[in-house]
Amino acid sequence: MEFTTDKMSRASLRALTEASAAINASLDLPQVLDTISRLAAAVLRAEASSVLLLDKRRNKLVFAAAFGEQANSLLGQEFDANLGIAGQVAASGKAILMPNAAASDDHYKGIDQKSGFRTQELIAAPMVVDEQVVGVVEVLNSIEDRAFQPEDVDLLQVFGNLAAIGARNAQTHQKLKHENLGLRKTVAGDRTIIGSSVRLQEVLRLCDKVASSQATVLLLGETGTGKEMLARYVHNASPRKEAPFIAINCAALTETLLESELFGHEKGAFTGAVALKIGRFEMADGGTLFLDEIGDISQSTQVKLLRVLQEHEFVRVGGTRTVACDVRTIAATNRDLKAAISAGRFREDLYYRLNVFPIQLPPLRERREDIPTLAEHFTVRFSRRLGREVPRISNNAQAILTGHRWPGNIRELQNVIERALLLCDGDTIEPSHLPEDITGSQPGTSPGQGNGGLWDYERAMILKALEDANWNQSQAARALGISRDNLRYRVKKYKINRPGKQ
Questions:
Q1: Are 184 and 363 a contacting pair, CB within 8 Å?
Q2: pLDDT at residue 342, rounded to an integer
Q3: What's phi and psi for 216, nearest 5 deg?
C-alpha cells in the first residue's frame, strides 16, 4: 500500500509538521530524536517507541531516544546489529510489521529482559540517508482496539526518513564541530627538525619507517629532547596528516582532570561539569593523539587507557554510552618504564601495548654537531618574534654553547638563546649574554677526544660549513678560511661523513 497524505488524519499531519519543524530548529541530536520518538508513538497510538542509531564501526545498534514507561532504562543500551527485528531492518533497509513479536524467534528478547517491558507487536522502519541505513525507528504495542495495520508501516517510514535527515544534519554538524575543535588544538608551532648528526638521522629513519603504519609508537628520552616534535613528524608523514594532531601532557593534570581531558565527561558528571565535554580521543578521531609523560599516569587511568588501545572505544566520565574512536597513539616518557613495572607503578600489559615501536631520542650532548645549527635557528626565530635584526653568534659564544652538557637538552638551549637575544643590544651574541651556569661550566670531555668543548666546536663548525656548501669541500674551505688540504685533514680527523655515506 502506498502512503499518501489524503489518507492521513489531521493529527498525523500536525505531528509530521512538528517533527519537520524540530529538525529545522535544532542541530542537537538527542533533542531531535526525542521529538521523533514521542511523535511517532503519539501518531501511531503506540505504547512505546524508540530510535536506534547504527554504530557501523562496532556493528552495534544503540538506543539514542525512547518513549514510554521504560524509556530511561533503554537510553544508551546497545546490542549486536545482527540481532532481532531491528537488526533485520538495518541489514535489509526495509520496514517490518511483526503482529505477534512475543511468539517470534526473530524478536530479540534481551532488551525486554533488561528493561522489564513486554513487546507484543511492533513495527520497525529504517532510517536511510544516501542509500545508507543509519538507524531504525520502532513503535511497540498498539493502544487502540485494532492491531497495527500495513498503512501504519508506511507512516512510520515517514518518521524514519525524518529521523534520518535529523540524524545526518546533527551528526554532520557535530563532526565539523569536533574537527574544528581538534584542528584548533593542533597548534602549528615550529615543526622543523633541525640537525644532520648521525644520531638524529637514525631517529628520523625509524620515524619514516613507522609513519605509514598504524603502529603505536613509544618515544623514549630525557626531558627537552624534542619528543613532541618527533611525534608531529610521524603524524605529518602518515596518511593521517590532514586530520588533527592532539597532544596532552599527562603529568600536568590530576587523575580526575586527566580522565576528563582524555575521555570527556557528561553534563553533571561531577561538580562543575555544567555541560558535555569532548575529550582528546574524540578530538583526535581519524588523527593522532600524543600522550606525553605517559609514565606519570595513575593505575586507574592506566586501566582505562589500556581498554581504549585494545578496543578502540571508551566511555565518557559520568556516562554509560560507549564511544568508538579511530586514533593513532604516540606516547612518550623520560622515565624507566621497566623499573616502574618492577616497582608496581606501571602495568606490564599497558607497557607492551605502548611499546610496539620504541624510538630512543639522543640527548643534545650526544649530537653536539647540531648545536650551532640549532642555536642559529632559534636566533632567527626569536629575532623575528621580537621584530629585530638577526644577530650573529660570536665564535667564543658558539664554543661555549657547543661545549655545554645541556642537561635540559634542546629546550634549555632554546631558553638560553631567547634570553641572550633579550640581553643583546648589538649585532653579535657574546659570552656575556649567556647565563653564568653555562659560561662558568667546564666543557665535557668525550672519550678519546681530549677537550670536548674545543673538539666538538671545531667539528661542528666544519660540519656546518660543509652543509652550507652542499658538501663542496673547496667552497667550505674558503668559507672557513683554510686550505682544502687542511679541511680534508680535519674531515678525516673528526671522522665526518656526509649523511647517507659511510
A1: no
A2: 96
A3: -75, 135
How far is 141 from 119, CA to CA, in rounded Å?
7
Placement of cell 647540531 in the chain: 370
Write out the residue range of the structural domain in which residue 431 sits. Answer: 368-493
| Number of helical H runs and strand E runs in the chain | 20, 15
170: region left, alpha or beta (phi > 0 left; psi from -120 to 50 alpha): alpha
Question: Residue 182: inside a domain, yes or no?
Answer: no
Cβ pair 318, 359 in contact under 8 A: no
Cβ atoms of 123 and 88 closer than 8 Å:
no
CATH value at residue 483: 1.10.8.60
Pair (20, 78) in one structural domain = yes
At residue 347, the pLDDT reads 96
Number of domains into which the chain is organized: 3
- Predicted TM-score (pTM) of this structure: 0.65
Question: Could you tell me what percentage of the chain is helix, strand and coil, using 3-state DSSP and rounding each to the nearest 5?
Answer: 50, 15, 35
pLDDT value of residue 131: 86
Low pLDDT (below 50) residues in the chain: 1-6, 186-189, 441-452
pLDDT digits (tens, 9 = 90+) for 132-143: 899 999 999 998
Rounded to an integer, what distance in angstroms lies between the CA atom of residue 221 and that of residue 333?
A: 7
